TrEMBL record, chains A, B:
Its EC number is 1.3.1.12. One of its GO terms (biological process) is tyrosine biosynthetic process. It holds the Pfam family PDH_C. Transmembrane segments: none annotated. It catalyses: prephenate + NAD(+) = 3-(4-hydroxyphenyl)pyruvate + CO2 + NADH. SUPFAM superfamilies: 6-phosphogluconate dehydrogenase C-terminal domain-like (SSF48179), NAD(P)-binding Rossmann-fold domains (SSF51735). This is prephenate dehydrogenase. Residues 6-295 form the Prephenate/arogenate dehydrogenase domain. Belongs to the prephenate/arogenate dehydrogenase family. Gene3D superfamilies: 6-phosphogluconate dehydrogenase C-terminal like domain, NAD(P)-binding Rossmann-like Domain. It comes from the Bacteria. GO terms for molecular function: NAD+ binding; prephenate dehydrogenase (NAD+) activity; prephenate dehydrogenase (NADP+) activity.
Length: 308, 308
């Protein structure tokens, strides 16, 4: 056992919240886990899964006497959670979150945080396309990055404590300012999701190609996009609305590049196309070398003979 | 042994050609495999891998007395192969190909095919992001679709023989006309590859986010695109140039849809965003139900705890 906190309150118990619950329990990081979610159905399911020691639909009740509060809700709900819990936070408590956009979360939560707590915005880069408490699993954060975007004047000791927590889960911790985080995530995460959602929508709308053909032949490329496009709609709608400026900037660049490529296709400029298609190969190699993806062909999906 | 052909000539010995070689041998589908490729280096490698019984850099020599000729080259090279082999084809031989675009391949090859052979264009929807003779493996075609796009007046018996060949490899065979094939593939395969290449290029060009940040944090979505964007540049340049019209049509639709989504993000229209993000989830479910992708989160990529 490696107890770091007496009581941890998990506000929100979806994929991230439930994975946190499994790991806190497995690693013995808290004496008590309090689970809070607004939805009675989700709370019931969390209970059935045995994710916490106490359960409540009230975030305010949940944070009572908690040493660490982790808010894992769609980013658009950050302000209402902050308002609800503000008056019940114990002096010295650490409040953190896991939201995919950081400037917006800070703007929504910081004004409500009392002086006597440590508010440290965070973002674990971990997850899958599944959502809800049933999607969580132990080890989700192992080997993944967690980015802190601390505000000015953050207590060094509190930050160190929170860092130890994430490191106990197996994560590597980085720090950057919220604006930079939002730009980085716009390109590595938000734009890919938006593009994936968009292309799947385009395919769904065709008249000349049937939906059953799209599905039947999807292994020739399309299916790779459908994974991201199956992610939680509420979470991703909120990301779009709350990292608007950085996303619009990346979308503008993407569209500009696509117009260039489209023109090269129209005019048969094979060398321009070839140059791009060669350059992008190198990036894949770097990602595999950095251990950020598997080297096995097809993401290591099983091929027919493997199954026999 | 289940010999279907006395001599099979493989023109081109990359990922597809070499996978064919492994399966023809493994399943005993031919008495003799002749391997031809223009590149002496590739031919040498094919020899080292033991892919054939005879090896030549001359396609013309390779097809001599062959009963089945499978052309597996970038689609832009189809016409020059057709010209080279035309005068040496034996009466009654079946000539097929594996190209990703079909109207163009027919336009390039059909005029050169002598009356006394059976030219049956084909397209196995199989492959990985790897290329070259080292990328091939037995079983690549097992459980995958192979689409024939026969021209008018094709001999029924020859088509049946070719169908049996692909079925022996474990493939399911479909037939459609070349124009429809090119539209279907434009959306399920060509557009996804082009979009993947494009977004990886956009990320590579940023000034405010470093390349090392893109790589480091790529697991949050971006890496899914890098697999397709690591595909063979020559093959994909040729696809772009040889299925131009269908690709430009799909690109126009995609861009139109993206402009709509971008506008919804700019104006904070959460319900429009939510509607799309919900609709796309259903497509993923259908693909998984149809057995066209794995249901495991993250394409079944191993998570940290699995490896231990």
């Amino acid at each position: 056992m490696n107890v770091q906190f007496d009581r941890i309150a998990l506000i929100g118990i979806g994929l991230i919240g439930s994975s946190l619950a499994y790991d806190i329990r497995r690693l013995g990081l808290a004496r008590e886990i309090v689970v809070a979610t607004r939805s009675p159905d989700t709370l019931k399911r969390a209970k059935e899964l045995g994710l916490g020691d106490r359960y409540t639909t009230s975030s305010a009740d949940a944070v009572e006497d908690a040493d660490l509060i982790i808010v894992s809700v769609p980013v658009g709900a950050s302000e209402s959670v902050a308002k609800e819990i503000a008056g019940r936070l114990k002096p010295g408590a650490i409040v953190t979150d896991v939201g995919s956009t950081k400037a917006s979360v800070i703007a929504q939560m910081l004004p409500h945080m009392p002086e006597h707590v440590h508010f440290i915005p965070g973002h674990p880069l971990a997850g899958t396309e599944k959502s809800g408490p049933d999607a969580g699993f132990p080890g989700l954060f192992e080997g993944r990055w967690c980015i802190f975007t601390p505000v000015a004047g953050t207590d060094v000791a509190a930050m160190k404590r929170l860092r130890s927590f994430w490191e106990a889960l197996g994560s590597k911790v980085d720090e950057m300012d919220a604006e930079h985080h939002d730009k980085v995530l716009a390109i590595v995460s938000h734009l890919p999701h938006i593009i994936a959602y968009n292309i799947v929508g385009t395919a769904d709308d065709l008249e000349t190609v049937t939906e059953s053909e799209v599905i039947k032949y999807s292994a020739s490329g399309f299916r790779d996009f459908t994974r991201l496009a199956a992610s939680d709609p509420t979470m991703w709608r909120d990301v779009c609305l709350h990292n608007r400026d950085a996303i619009l900037e990346m979308l503008a660049r993407f569209s500009e590049d696509l117009a260039y490529l489209q023109r090269a296709i129209r005019w048969g400029e094979g060398d321009k196309i070839f140059e791009l298609f060669t350059r992008t190969r190198a990036i894949r190699r770097s990602i595999v070398q950095a251990g950020q993806d598997v080297d096995a062909p097809d993401f290591g999906r099983p091929h027919a003979l493997d199954k026999k």
